[in-house]
């Protein structure tokens, strides 16, 4: 499954005025990010270096719930997948813009071993994960 990454913040935040935000516009925006090391943060730092900009990571959180609360209570922005944003950040309190130029995508993989058949429990979990990801 693939999903666009979104810049998410409090409604009315200047960086979130449009449905899409160029990556370059993240320069200087106070960001809450996952605790380092993290794949998303690494990708963002790499894109920033290529574009010659500095990202302003002011807080790290160990879970999406912590990052969500940071956005809700502090005025910070963060980056979440579009599915999570639609499910967990909907409503009048938050705004979101798709990151473009370059776009950042999240790819979710689900794999099962081939050395032995998957149990009923593993197959059930795999089915539920697929359903959840498709709904997001």
Description of the structure:
The chain has helices at 39-51, 64-74, 82-88, 120-135; strands at 2-10, 20-22, 30-34, 56-61, 78-81, 94-100, 105-107. The model has no long low-confidence stretch (mean pLDDT 89). The strands form two sheets. Strands 1, 2, 5, 6 and 7 form a five-stranded mixed β-sheet that branches. Strands 3-4 form a two-stranded parallel ribbon. With 136 residues, it is α/β, with parallel strands linked by helices. The radius of gyration is 17 Å and the shape is globular. Helices cover 35% and strands 27% of the residues. The longest helix is centred in the last third of the chain and has 16 residues, at 120-135. The N and C termini lie close together (10 Å).
Q: What share of the residues lie within helices? A: 25-40%
| Number of H- or I-type helical stretches | 4
In N-to-C order, the SSE pattern is EEEHEHEHEEH
Strand content: 25-35%
Shape: globular
Structural class: alpha/beta
Q: Report the strand count.
A: 7
Overall mean pLDDT stands at 89
Distance between the termini: 10 Å
Q: Please describe the biggest sheet, giving its number of strands, its sense, and whether it closes into a barrel.
A: 5 strands, mixed
The stretches of 5 or more residues where confidence is low (pLDDT under 50) are none
Computed Rg: 17 Å
């Amino acid at each position: 499954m693939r999903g666009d990454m979104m810049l998410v913040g409090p409604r009315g935040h200047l960086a979130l005025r449009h449905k899409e935000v160029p990556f370059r516009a993240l320069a200087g925006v106070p960001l809450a990010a996952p605790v380092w090391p993290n794949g998303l943060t690494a990708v963002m730092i790499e894109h920033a270096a290529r574009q010659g900009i500095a990202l302003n990571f002011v807080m790290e959180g160990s879970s999406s719930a912590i990052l969500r609360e940071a956005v809700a209570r502090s005025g910070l922005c963060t980056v979440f997948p579009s599915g999570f944003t639609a499910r967990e950040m909907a409503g009048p309190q938050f705004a979101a813009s798709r990151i473009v130029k370059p776009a950042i995508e999240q790819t979710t993989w689900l794999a099962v071993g081939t050395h032995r058949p998957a149990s009923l429990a593993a197959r059930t979990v795999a089915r539920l994960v697929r359903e959840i990801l498709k709904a997001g």
